[in-house]
Write a structure and sequence with these properties.
By secondary structure, the chain is of the alpha/beta class. The chain has two domains: about 10-265, 3-Layer(aba) Sandwich (UDP-N-acetylmuramoyl-L-alanine:D-glutamate ligase), CATH 3.40.1190; about 275-420, Mur ligase, C-terminal domain (Protein-Tyrosine Phosphatase, Chain A, Alpha-Beta Complex), CATH 3.90.190. The protein has helices spanning about 1-25, 35-50, 65-70, 85-95, 115-120, 145-155, 175-180, 240-250, 255-265, 295-305, 325-340, 350-355, 370-375, 395-405, 420; strands at about 25-30, 55, 105-110, 130, 165-170, 185-190, 200-210, 210-220, 225-230, 275-280, 280-285, 310-315, 345, 360-365, 385-390. It has a nine-stranded mixed beta sheet with strand order 2-3-1-4-5-6-7-8-9, with helices on both faces. A six-stranded mixed beta sheet has the order 10-11-15-12-13-14, sandwiched between helices. α2 packs across α8 (about 240-250). The protein is globular. The two termini are about 25 Å apart. Keywords: ATP-binding, Ligase, Nucleotide-binding. InterPro entries: Mur-like_cat_sf (IPR036565), Mur_ligase_C (IPR004101), Mur_ligase_C_dom_sf (IPR036615), Mur_ligase_cen (IPR013221), MurCDEF_CellWall_CoF430Synth (IPR051046). GO terms for molecular function: acid-amino acid ligase activity; ATP binding. This is UDP-N-acetylmuramoyl-tripeptide--D-alanyl-D-alanine ligase.
Length: about 425
Amino acid sequence: MKSLCKSIVAFVLGLVARVVIHKYQPQIVMVTGSVGKTSTKDAVAVALSARFFVRKSAKSFNSEFGVPFTILGVKNPWHNPLAWIGIAKSALALLILPNHYPNMLVLEIGADRPGDLARILRVATPDVVVVTRLPDIPVHVEAYLSPEAVREEEFSPAYALRPAAPLIISSDKPHAIEMAKHTSARVISYGINEDATVHVRNIDFHETDGKIDGMAAEVLVEGDKGILIVKGSVGKIQILPLAAALAAAIAFKIALPEALGALEKYEPPPGRGRLFAGKNDSVIIDDSYNSSPAALEEALATLKTFPHAKRRIAVLGDMLELGRYSVEEHGRIGALAASSADVVVAVGIRARAFAAAGKNVDVILFDNSRAAAKSVVELVRPGDVILVKGSQSIRTERIVEALLADAADAAKLVRQEREWKKKA
């Protein structure tokens, strides 16, 4: 019964959202892929705001419910039954009354199960598609027959594009490049590959007054050069959303200087490589939003190369939804962790494989984040750099919160809403 009610609500929401789009005719940019969708969606929205009245998906509202919520301009009502009345009023107002509706929607879309994106595409058809990196072993693979099936679903919005419509893809993995050959879209690529339309090079940490505060890189776009700077987050992967945003700017004929100026307002979302001052004069890299093999590889590379660190501590939770690839991938990433950190703190049953792979590194095991949060603080010494990363349900943001030098910074972490805080 619950599943049936959910399906009915999703159908009605989708129908209303589809009518709203038909009435107002906004241009739609869809952001799909396995790694960095939310950061990319945010960066694209900032870049396009130089020319358009933009509405973007809130947080990671990328489902058959989240996308209609964004189109209707309403908040998630699931924990407040009375909020559905407000949604009905908002929908009626959009359908009946004149409204100053956005002329650009930037929609993040995601798939947990086969068919998820097909349902979203029945609600909205993209004018531009941005495909972030499609790794060899993507998240949610346990729900699909193969990694190829996941990549095919994540790429599927590109097949809905009109001929010669812009398709923006990462050039740093071959999967999207090969799939793009089967479309009639106009391909615009971005990445560190020299052949990319938006070519990023010389990515490095950004310092202010001798203190690491973000990332910087050079960017080459159709013969023009510029500098990309991301403040507040670290890792090569933090630069790539801005490169994707510049590719979107090309699609809408926004000049590089104008797009770079708009991107100065970009702020990385919570839990994606965010920097915080930690207790006992340490530095925290908060990557606690989620975890997958590709994203964790990048995070460990960032920890390994972080300047001025006296010790490097990797606090790593389970990577979930990997199905039959789970044991292999946890073991492989464990070997990387051993070569990237002086101390590995493994949180969760699957994460024990991280520890098993390390031979010359101190290892500490915890069953859950609550237990880890109580003990990890005692490990920290001055000059330590601490990476914290794990899948959503492992709730590693609890460990970040325990490590914060300033308790007020907890408001900047992921999953701080009352409903999340109540969960075990």
